[in-house]
From TrEMBL:
Gene (UniProt): TDEL0A05010
Protein name (Swiss-Prot/TrEMBL): Casein kinase II subunit beta
GO cellular component, one term: nucleoplasm
Any one of the GO BP annotations: regulation of cell cycle
Subunit and partners: Tetramer of two alpha and two beta subunits.
Length: 264
């Protein structure tokens, strides 16, 4: 009788005991719950680059931003310089952020954008920065020249001043060597100092194979096939000067389709 009772209890225990498969399923469900509840926190630099209108910017390495040597003379451009740097590279303590007022957080964000722009102007003339901008240039991320005879030549961003707050970014065409205003208002409001005055020259010096031939074809206004008198007279004078220059270059064994002094 006692043996029968023991057998019944063992059988009951076997029925109620979870199998190894059910244990694994329970563990997987638990792990899945943890994975689903976890949130991915995006870096500040990624958020900045992801905003509309920031397509001209490249990502600056955090190591470059935290190197004090690269930040010389930038300390006075923003308030609480160290805090701004930590905020950009996501090293600012969360408790410090939580203790800030809304106004202070807005000021910190504004200072971070300005500081990133200024350090960006320095970074894009380094070897790594130039390489990243080359990728964007090949993809025509900065737009193409609107001049017909430039044949959709990709443009380069440039600032007319290195001091922020003076002028907005312009676009330089290596083909016609002229400047243009960005088409989109999102881009035309970007400070030119965030790209600096030296970038196009450094870029074309580093990658001379990217320098296109300068176009020699010019448009002359006509009415019913006849050139306009004043415009035609000016065009003939300009063409005469061009031919003289071409002849002079020929005497020096130089090609008229030069690349602005950049050598391959």
């Amino acid at each position: 009788m006692a043996n029968e009772t023991v057998d019944v209890e063992l059988a009951s225990a076997e029925r109620t005991r979870p199998s190894d498969d059910s244990k694994r399923n329970d563990d997987d469900d638990a792990m899945g719950g943890v994975t689903d509840s976890s949130e991915y926190v995006e870096m500040w630099i990624d958020l900045f680059l992801g905003r509309k209108g920031h397509e001209y910017f490249c990502d600056v390495d955090p190591e470059y931003i935290t190197d004090r040597f690269n930040l010389i003379n930038l300390q006075k451009t923003v308030s609480k310089f160290t805090q701004v740097v930590q905020y950009i590279v996501d090293e600012l303590d969360e408790f410090v952020l939580e203790g800030m007022s809304h106004a202070r957080l807005e000021q910190l964000e504004s200072d971070a954008r300005k500081f990133y722009g200024l350090i960006h102007a320095r970074y894009i003339i380094t070897v790594k920065g130039l390489s990243k901008m080359l990728t964007k240039y090949k993809s025509a991320d900065f737009g193409r020249c609107p001049r017909v005879y430039c044949n959709c030549q990709p443009l380069l961003p440039v600032g007319l001043h290195d001091v922020p707050g003076i002028d907005c970014v312009k676009l330089y065409c290596p083909s016609c060597e002229d400047l243009y205003i960005p088409k989109s208002s999102r881009h035309s409001t970007i400070d030119g100092a965030y790209f600096g005055t030296s970038f196009p020259g450094m870029f074309l010096q580093a990658f001379p194979e990217m320098v296109p031939d300068h176009p020699v074809k010019r448009y002359v206004p006509r009415i019913f096939g006849f050139e306009l008198h004043k415009q035609a007279q000016l065009a003939r004078w300009q063409e005469l000067q061009r031919l003289k220059l071409v002849a002079k270059l020929g005497e020096e064994n130089l090609n008229a389709l030069n690349r602005g002094g950049y050598k391959k």
